[in-house]
Every structure is written in C-alpha cells, then in structure tokens.
Amino acid sequence: MRIVFMGTPEFAVPSLRLLMEQGYDVVAAVSQPDRPKGRKRVLTPPPLKEAALAFGLPVLQPERMRSPEAVAAIAELEPDLIVTAAYGQILPKALLDIPRLGCINVHGSLLPRYRGGAPIQRSIINGEAVTGVTIMYMAEGLDTGDMISKVEVPIADEDTSGTLFEKLSAAGAELLGRTLPALLAGELQAEPQNNELATYAPNLTREDERIDWSKTARGIYNQVRGLSPMAGAFTYLNGEVFKVWSCAKPEGRKGSASSAPGTVIGATSAGIEVQTGDGVLTLLEIQPAGKRVMTVADWLPGARLSDGAVFDGGEA
Fold it and tell me: Would you state the CATH architecture of domain 206-312?
C-alpha cells in the first residue's frame, strides 16, 4: 500500500515517524514551503520536511495545493491512501479523489467540536478540561468528514499550547497506529459528524492576542496559556507593547475594588499582581518591548514599575 503523508509543523512528525517505524510504504511527504523565520528572516524548512528528509523521503512543497500542477504531482505518486496531520491547506476534491482508500486526517480535537486551524490553542483559551484527537475521512468542507476513531486527552491547568501540542501529537500517532490496521482490513465503520454540535477554531488573529484586563483572572490566565509559546499574549505599558508569557494560577483574590482593571497593585520578585475584572492575576514571565523573554524577578530591578501603574489595551 502506497501512502503519501502530508503535514507541516512538529505536530505531524510523530505520525510520520510511526508510519515509517511500522514499515508502511510512505512514498513521499508533502509540506508547506520553507518560510522566513526570526528577526533575521532566515529561510527555514518546516519540521515535517526535516523529519521526512531524515527518513530519506522525497518531499513536495507546493505553494498552492489547489493548483493543477500540485494535484498532478500527487497523482503521479499513485497513492492508495493519503494521511494528513496539520498540513495547513484545504485539499481540493481533485486531490481527495486520487487515492483508492481515501484521505484521512489526524485532527487535534474531538470533532465536531473545534473544526479549523487552531483547535489546540482555542481549547485552552476557552477553558476546556478535555480535548483529544479525531481521525477522520477528509471531505471538501472544513473538517467535516466522517469520523473513524477518537481518543480523549485531559487538559491540565498548567498546560500551554506547547505542552498540549506535544500530548496530542503523541496521542494522534498512537491512535493512527491502532486505527490503520483495522481501517485497511475494512473493520471500522465511520461515523458522520453531527453538524448541529459543530464549533469552530479559526486561526488566531492579533486581536486574539490582546489582553482585555476587564475579563476574569481565569479567562486571562487561559488566554496566556493558549498563546504560549507561539505568539504570546500582549498588553501595553507606557504606550509600548508588553508581552505576557506565563502567569500564576489564579487563587480567587479579589484585589482592590477601587482599582481599575489593568492596574498594578503589587510588584515583587515573585511576580506582578494586576487587577482584572474579578480579582488578581500574577504575571511571572514577561517580555517588555525590545527585550528578551524574562522572569519578573530579572526585569524589576531596572524597571521602575510602581504600584498604580496601568497596563492598557492600547492600539493594535
């Protein structure tokens, strides 16, 4: 059985590794093009490409998977099955029709909840206690295909999107390993999704990263976790962008009723205490404008941050 594997970020790597280690005939990998990264904008290959090359696989990187040339390149590989994991583009029907066994996707949520490109981040931002992985047949819609198998994964209070990506990528690979033999043997019955239960997880925007201090301490805590270590949540201090990378778990302290949300009510080496809409949130790791990520303890000595300073929404 000839398999083409499609994926881009680190999330996809364990699933590809499992296919290779279990001896499946992966004939090629498909990933997004190399992109500039970092302040120096160095052209950098995606993690899936690096893993595929390490396995000695040919790698295709079409800019647009919907182009006739990209579809033709996949057709020439004559795949029996296409497996995708966080590839990052919607596949056209012309491509979905190529493999005789169809196209399956390893998706980082319990469908039909959290369809879309940012299910892991938004599950944390929304305060979910449980998420998981769904393996499904791919269809023309956005994560609308019939579901083949699922596994649940708890979300710990300390999880960030980074740690949850690792948990779900490992769970997805393990689920793929259990699902494929039964799928190929025709022993699994796919289940249509209930569209009435569908929720969506669109890609994150700049506005999703902005902290609204009038929200609850728990809500902001979840926002910060869901945006770390990728984009980071941000606010403004003295008119400059101020990123927040980690906070202490809220303990229910009410703080000062007379202080407006965003007001600093205490700052020590243990953290910066900020008034929110319903209580106090303590910032632990931060990144002032033009600086590296650091602990509050490292930043405070030269910061001259006084009680009563205010973080605000500023301009996007």
Answer: Roll (3.10)
